[in-house]
Amino acid sequence: MAAIFFRRLAMVLSLGALISLCGCLGRSQPTRFYLLQPIAGIPAEKTAAAKLQGMRIGVGPLTLPEYVDRPQIVTLVGPHELDLADFDQWSEPLRESVPRILGENLSALLSTQHIYLYPWIGSANIDYQIEVDITRFDADLGGNAMLAARWALTSGENKQVLSVKHSTITRPTGGAGYEDLVAAESGALEQLSREIAAAIKSIAQGR
Which domains does the chain possess? Predict the structure, then answer.
């Protein structure tokens, strides 16, 4: 009888362990969400502030390559291979967050609160409009974030093209995690914003 009891006990324990193992295997990894960040802590600029304050800037239209315009964060794993992270995703679509971040950055760099994101409603009396075609916005984990963009600056009143440029930006991630990668991509957008702001300042100040 004792032998039968112990055999049954062993079967029950084995079955319990198997059920527990299946539960662990079936439990999915939690998804982590990331957000691009604008420039922080810019000191107020004293030079030419009078000309720049109150300036109305229109941001957009802005286009992104389809391969990055998805919830998953896209990383490079080879010259011709991409990886889509199943559990590391954007908290909002890049087609919404990228123009918003550019707008916030330009607001800080140009000391103006009058930033309009495309498509703006009605007549906003735009002074300058920036149209951006981003052709690359990706990174490799533990390596670099890369941004390539063609952008055009036009006068808001008559759509006269004032400047057309191409920016290629590389920022080291400084770490092997997705948080480091996202921070580097925010830094790449910051550098693009500074290039655009410099062009606007130069034209506004008649240089």
Answer: 53-204 (3.40.50.10610)
